[in-house]
Structure formats: structure tokens, C-alpha cells
Amino acid sequence: MRVHIINTQLAILLTATAALILQGARALSVSGVVPNLVLIVFFVAIFWAPTRKKLILVIPSLMVFFLLSVIWFKFWIFPFLIIVALVVIAHIIQPYLTGSQLVDFVAVLAGGTVLFRLMLVLFGSASWSWFIVFGEVLYNILLGMVVLVLAQRISIQ
Questions:
Q1: Domain count, the chain
Q2: So what's the pLDDT on residue 2?
Q3: Residue 75: which domain range?
Q4: Alpha helices, DSSP H only, in the chain?
Q5: Is residue 157 one of the residues assigned to a domain?
Q6: What is the C-alpha separation between 20 and 57, in angstroms, rounded?
């Protein structure tokens, strides 16, 4: 059981690292809109993990990912702090949502994307453009739903 949990944590961590590399390379950029792949990965993990194992699987992976980012991606420290806060908030509010996994995921991801961008704008790390924000929300929702469906095919006991 412990090995399965560690393997799942490593899978989340490696997926988030691959997402960071793709996001940093702007590999999925469409008309200047880049999806927030790291946010998508951790939100999918929150909605994918069983309720009783969510804290064991997702939060340690998120913390290790943040610590690694402090070492290797110093310019990403503030955005990662925002992502950590958003993932914790998503975990806290998830039981109080509609109960439909897809509807809840779309709502949380859309809200998380807007809050992420708003926090970057408020602290001077980014500018606000309705086109970019709206495009990023749509792009994150589309990619997030694909990743969530793929993740649901993997079961955790």
C-alpha cells in the first residue's frame, strides 16, 4: 500500500514537472495564450484522488514540487505560491460544491485560472488582457477536461 502511494505521488510530481517544461517552452501556445499546465495537473489530481487519500497523495506532491521549484526555478516562486494556495482552497471547497465532478472541476479551474491571473496582476508580475484571460480560461478548461478524463481511467484503490 505504501509503495502504491509513493508511486502515485511520484507520478503526480513527474507529470507536474513535464507540465512545467511544456509550459515554460510555450509548446502549447495558441495565439499568445498559454495554458497553465501546472495548475491543471494539480487541480486534476485534487478531483481525481479519492477523498480519503487526497491529502496523502496530492499535498505532499505539491509541496515537493514547490521545494524543487525554489531550487531550480527561482523566477517561478511567486506563481507556485499562488498555485499552492489555489490547490489548497480547491481541496477545502470541493465538498461544498454541486457534487458533479465535471461541473465542479470546470468551475474550480475557471475560478482558479482567473484568480491566478488576478494575483499576478495585483503583484505586478503580469498584465491584464481580457483576450488572454478569457483564452486561458477556455484553454485550461478544454485541456483540463481531457486530462481529467484520462486520469479517471487510472484507478486508485
A1: 1
A2: 66
A3: 2-152
A4: 2-24, 37-48, 54-72, 77-93, 101-122, 130-152
A5: no
A6: 19
